[in-house]
Write a structure and sequence with these properties.
4-stranded antiparallel sheet, 9% strand
Length: 304
């Protein structure tokens, strides 16, 4: 194939003419282009969008009038994969806590989790039957949980790709995608999304809040925020403790959190190493939940 032909193919992949976007214009040239699509190609809107994003192309709104155009685009991306980058969105290298960095250097760390499990058991046991005579922050109702906000541009459908990756790659990808760790109660995680969607609906795409800005940036790239709920049905102080441990392991400079979090109970007296080991194990468990449940994204249209 000549260099001129390659340039023509690249131009065809990256550019779709304005006339093709106009549903009212159905020229003979456009019809002939669409006739080259295989008869068997058919995707629902969500699947079509995911297939395009996986192949490095972020589509605009997929409607009745634009769906055929994006089907053609997907056909081209499949036909000429060498011309399109399939790599996830690049990110600057993060530096985590010493305890978390060790797990990235030695993937065998998870072969023996007994010590990590014992840390969680101590915390869970203390808060399982809290003394009602003591004053606990926000009470002892077991309606709290912790949650993580993940960037889909970095996960790149990690649950669907995990089997083809090395364990270290899966672990590293998951960690790099976490941009916020929080303590939730009922609809608490969505309060961030409610705030972000207010900016979105007003066409205000700039916010002084790092967390809100991250959410808006994800939406602007035609993705949806992943909100992963973990460690549910616990009392508030346990949720705060688990939140703080995960933030300590990840290091707050790698997140959009405004503060490091608070420890309660026996964990508050632990040395930093134990706190971070606890956080490492919680992150590992969160990743396993994510891989098992699959990737679900929340877009502006999903926020009521």
């Amino acid at each position: 194939m000549s260099s001129i032909e390659i340039l023509c193919i690249k131009f065809d992949l990256l550019c779709i003419s304005d006339s093709e976007y106009n549903g009212s214009i159905k020229s003979s040239s456009f019809s002939s282009k669409m006739s080259s699509l295989p008869d068997t190609i058919d995707y629902d809107t969500d699947t079509l969008r995911k297939e395009l994003i996986i192949r490095g192309y972020n589509p605009g709104p997929i409607t009745v009038t634009t769906k055929n155009i994006y089907l053609k685009k997907l056909h081209q991306l499949k036909k000429y994969p060498a011309l399109v980058s399939r790599e996830p969105r690049p990110v600057s290298k993060r530096v985590y806590s010493v305890e978390l960095e060790k797990t990235l250097r030695d993937s065998s760390w998870c072969n023996d989790l007994a010590l990590y499990k014992s840390l969680e058991e101590v915390v869970a046991k203390q808060f399982c039957n809290p003394d009602p005579s003591r004053k606990w922050r926000e009470g002892i109702n077991k309606s709290s949980f912790t949650y993580l906000l993940l960037d889909p541009r970095l996960t790149n459908n990690l649950p669907g790709r995990a089997e083809s990756l090395k364990p270290k790659e899966v672990w590293e990808t998951f960690l790099s995608s976490v941009f916020y760790v929080g303590k939730g109660k009922r609809s608490r995680p969505y309060s961030h999304l409610y705030e972000a969607v207010n900016f979105w609906n007003k066409r205000q795409f700039s916010s002084g809040n790092k967390k809100i800005q991250s959410i808006i940036d994800i939406w602007r790239s035609n993705g949806g925020v992943i909100c992963l709920h973990v460690f549910q049905n616990i009392i508030p102080v346990e949720a705060y403790t688990r939140e703080a441990a995960m933030i300590s392991a990840l290091k707050i400079e790698n997140l959009t959190n405004a503060k490091c979090g608070d420890y309660y109970g026996i964990a508050a007296a632990w040395p930093q190493k134990q706190k971070k080991m606890f956080g490492v194990y919680l992150l590992y468990k969160a990743m396993m939940i994510f891989l098992n449940e699959g990737e679900r994204q929340l877009c502006p249209s999903d926020i009521d």
